[in-house]
Amino acid sequence: MEAATETAIPAGTVQVGGKTYMHDAKGHLVPIEAIKPADKLQDETVRKIIGYATELSAQIGRFKEHTFNDLSAFEGLLAQDYGATKGGAKGNKTFLTFDGLQKVQVQVADLIDFGAELQIAKSLIDECLTEWSADSRPEIRAIVNRAFNVDKEGQINRAEIFMLLRLDIEDERWKRAMEAIRDAMRVIGSKTYVRCYQRASQDAPWEAVTIDLAKA
Q1: What global pTM score does this model have?
Q2: How far apart are CA 6 and CA 49, in angstroms?
Q3: What angle (nearest 5°) sits at the alpha carbon of residue 39, between those of residues 33 and 42?
Q4: Is 23 helix (H, G, I), strand (E, B) or coil?
Q5: Which pLDDT tens digit goes with each residue over 77-102?
Q6: CA 35, CA 24: separation in Å to the nearest integer?
Q7: Cα–Cα 20 to 30 A to 38, which of 3, 104, 125, 168?
């Protein structure tokens, strides 16, 4: 595989009156001879990494564009041959190689937000937790606390909210709370994901082709 090339990143130095300076984090000009060697080396290292990261980001963008173009072209051929396109209304599709060892999945996920009914659900859930013994259902209490604890972006924990909906609890207030949560859901858009997989043989498990840097 061809190694990623490096995007040229400015050196960060400026010439003033025939002397070389660098801006510090506050925007002040500092003579380059007054900067510690370790700080200059760190600056050079970060600029080098950012150069590669910028080019890699551009490659991923081009990969995504080419992928959708290639799949659209294939679906165009299907439409000509069969008068129909591949996949359902939500756009979820799977494309396989003939030997069944590689596949590309296209998945469309709804972007969910919650309306004012969510506060009603929280009130009903709080009533249940207050009445139930603190020791009787600690795991449920933990899920509730995580679900309604806002994250760094000020958003509720959607995964934990959906976890609440999967709990089988017969209390009528709990059921009304879950109904309020469902009524609170708003589809505000969608996002399309492309995932690639491969396997060594037809009976081997699928392995994702890693593009996420955190999982590489």
Answers
A1: 0.58
A2: 8
A3: 135
A4: strand
A5: 887 777 665 555 456 889 999 999 99
A6: 10
A7: 3
